[in-house]
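Protocol check, entry for the methods section draft. Step 1: assemble the input record (protein sequence plus ligand SMILES). Step 2: submit for complex structure prediction. Step 3: store the structure tokens unaltered in the notebook. Ligand used here: pyridoxal-5'-phosphate. Step 1 record:
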Amino acid sequence: MKKRENKPTWHAETQAIRIQSERTSHMEHSGPMYLTSSFCYDDAEAMRAAFADETDAFIYTRFSNPTVEEFIDRMRALEGAEAGFATASGMSAVFASFMAFLKTGDHLVSSSSIFGSTHTVITKFLPKWGIEHSYFDLTKPETVEALIKPNTKMIFVETPSNPGLDLVDLEVLAQIAKKHKVILNVDNCFATPALQRPIELGVDLVTHSATKWIDGQGRVLGGIVLGRKELVDEVYAFCRSTGPSMSPFNAWVLSRSLETLHVRMERHSASALKLAQALETNGHLEWVKYPFLPSHPQYAIAQKQMLAGGGIVCFELKGGLERGQRFLDKLELLSLTANLGDSRSIASHPASTTHAKLSEAERVKVGITPGLIRISVGLEHVDDIIRDITQALENSK
Ligand SMILES: *Cc1c(COP(=O)(O)O)cnc(C)c1O
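Step 3, stored output:
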């Protein structure tokens, strides 16, 4: 299928709006949704050629689908990537990016501040296939080189990390990865390509949970792996046979979301900065963390590689675990829910929820302190968000 004309000189945000699958004879304006499991052929020869990879004809939606391709093409433009493969969730993207390149006897270097399920994959499942790992402190990239062994195949990081908002200089890591010929794989979920483009900084693979800021309204799950074609071909080969493909319905929803990604991230970031600034002097808090606050330990890195600080603000309540739960109970506007990256602001308390099964010592190791609160700043009026958090702090003493 021919793509609608797309000018490479357009800015990425224009391409994210204008890249579209070919207009059909109905002359629709918005891209159609191709909810079909498989595709037809005029004759046996056309079918033979499709299966022999001699044509670009679609075969089966587990492999590829025009609506899913539209989402991939928009994401490729946004990340500056040669190729991509879209998956059913962020975790299937992370898992596929591991399985495509790691085999028994290989070694993965990862930062310890990573998403909880990624930590579970690395520590509980990869060892079942004899794939070992070493963790490093994301804020100490100078310790990475000493961990690289002859069997190291990949370095995996999140920046900013979930939920601790630690950052790492991606150019520094890219130099280390190149020197040792290992793949640098970055989960760009928190920043999104609207604020940070890892491939331009020398990163090999970008993985995403599209469920968060990319969807932006808490509706559908999705994920994607992007990078050079030779790398994405390996991810495709794994996914084509194992089946974690993205649904065309979710791809259609997510493509519409990409049309507003830049304006949304601008507003999320502006409100988050305002909230962080307002909370910095609040007497109920031990500290406030936000990448674009000069008090952030890696403020210089944030300024260098991000266009804005993103929509997540973290703070530590005085009064620890119990205060954290009392604080959540006093919120009137913010939602208590497991998601983030929504138009509706969300508060979460990792120590009593996502990380409750870890011991306190284990939690501290991954940066989860007892009174840590993570705010996903939504698109409501920022004064209402600030007022709700301030009153909940006042009333949870
Ligand atoms: C949520 C999340 C994931 C997993 O994504 P799902 O879409 O929930 O599978 C991976 N990485 C980060 C940083 C996340 O926040």
